């Protein structure tokens, strides 16, 4: 079924997925195909109410349109959200059925991993469609773990944000990193190699200890990291790290990190601006991962990935400069820029 809904502006195309035998119950949402196939991962999560799964798919698909356009990728935005079956279930059957559903869309939607799904699931999907990324990397081609690319993009964005605000390199600058998992730890290593000082916090004390030994980072409690004496705060754990309390506690003048959906509420972009804090919008700086996943689907090389990731720094600087000049919150500037890019590349050339 392909239907349209008016729950969001603009109305969003979606396909409801139901295959009782395979345990498949979900939705593929297609927000935009203006720049190319709607690309966005497949989330598997326990949603008691199907309406919640659908709302999440719409919200996430819209977010992918902004992220893909901003990253300069020839892709639109989409997302698949599957309801995790209760109890034991046949994972192979579920993802094979999902692969058949993706194939029916004939390339309008490209899937990959997201929360709750992994490489082995995408290999099941790939038995039925070629419109899938996030598989095992082939020699010489892009693919594999996107985290190092995400960390590099955040690092490049942070360098530019620091240069803009302080006129200096990262050497001697203190960065407070919340969450030192795949991306956070990678970022911390890049920062340490560049001469930055680190303060770190994570719910996993062993991760903190290992990284502190490697990089000389100081470890603080999670509820102390926002108030740490640092020039930059890098949220690299889960979403929603910037809530009213955290923003009020911040001592850093720059926020630049990998986590998705960092603002717990939209008004916090204005609160950050009112406090004189430069917020580098999350989807601009953390695009390295999607750039790598997209390159895998597009058959590009690791060098092409590096080229696109290295553009994240100057792009972040341009957004922060425009925001300052116009007295606007950087997320507003970023969204306007992304919206202007949500047209076909041919139309952009003609403009
Ligand atoms: P990860 O699971 O490897 O690391 C997350 C870390 O955060 C872990 O060390 C975990 O212990 C810690 N953590 C979880 N909850 C916490 C809390 N309440 N307080 C402090 N620490 C907490 O994940 P990742 O791949 O490093 O991704 C980190 C963030 O970046 C996520 O928000 C993710 O959506 C986003 N992101 C990741 C990529 C990527 O390429 N991996 C790309 C874009 C965005």
TrEMBL record:
All copies of domain Glutamate/phenylalanine/leucine/valine/L-tryptophan dehydrogenase C-terminal, residue ranges: 144-350
Superkingdom to which the source organism belongs: Bacteria
Active site positions, chain numbering: 79 (proton donor/acceptor)
Residues involved in NAD(+) binding: 179-184
Pfam families, per database record: ELFV_dehydrog, ELFV_dehydrog_N
UniProt entry keywords in alphabetical sequence: NAD, Nucleotide-binding, Oxidoreductase
GO-annotated molecular function: nucleotide binding; oxidoreductase activity, acting on the CH-NH2 group of donors, NAD or NADP as acceptor
GO biological process: amino acid metabolic process
Family from the record: Belongs to the Glu/Leu/Phe/Val dehydrogenases family.
Protein's name according to its UniProt entry: NAD(P)-binding domain-containing protein
Native species: Novosphingobium silvae
């Amino acid at each position: 079924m392909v239907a349209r809904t008016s729950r969001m502006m603009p109305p969003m195309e979606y396909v409801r997925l139901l295959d009782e035998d395979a345990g498949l119950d979900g939705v593929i949402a297609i927000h935009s195909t203006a720049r190319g196939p709607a690309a966005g991962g497949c989330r598997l999560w326990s949603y008691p109410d199907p309406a919640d799964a659908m709302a999440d798919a719409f919200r996430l698909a819209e977010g992918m349109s902004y992220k893909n356009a901003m990253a300069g990728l020839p892709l639109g935005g989409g997302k698949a959200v599957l309801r995790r079956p209760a109890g034991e279930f046949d994972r192979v059957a579920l993802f094979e059925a999902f692969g058949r559903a993706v194939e029916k869309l004939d390339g309008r939607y490209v899937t990959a991993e997201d929360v709750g799904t992994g490489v082995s699931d995408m290999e099941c999907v790939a038995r039925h469609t070629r419109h899938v990324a996030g598989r095992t990397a082939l020699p010489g081609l892009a693919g594999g773990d996107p985290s190092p690319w995400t960390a590099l993009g955040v690092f490049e964005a942070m360098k530019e944000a620091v240069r803009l605000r302080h006129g200096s390199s990262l050497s001697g600058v203190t960065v407070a990193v919340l969450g030192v998992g795949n991306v956070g730890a990678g970022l911390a290593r890049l920062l340490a190699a560049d001469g930055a000082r680190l303060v770190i916090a994570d719910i996993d004390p062993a991760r903190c200890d290992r990284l502190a030994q490697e990089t000389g980072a100081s470890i603080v409690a999670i509820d102390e990291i926002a108030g740490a004496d640092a020039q930059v705060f890098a949220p690299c754990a889960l979403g929603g790290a910037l809530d009213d309390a955290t923003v009020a506690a911040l001592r850093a003048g720059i926020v630049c990190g990998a986590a998705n959906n960092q603002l717990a509420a939209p008004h916090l972009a204005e609160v950050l601006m009112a406090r004189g804090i430069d917020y580098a919008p999350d989807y601009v700086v953390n695009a390295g991962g999607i750039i790598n996943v997209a390159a895998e689907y597009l058959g590009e090389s690791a060098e092409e990935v590096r080229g696109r990731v290295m553009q994240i720094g100057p792009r972040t600087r341009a957004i922060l400069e425009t925001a300052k000049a116009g007295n606007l919150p950087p997320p507003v500037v970023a969204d306007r820029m992304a919206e202007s890019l949500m047209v076909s590349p041919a139309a952009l050339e003609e403009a």
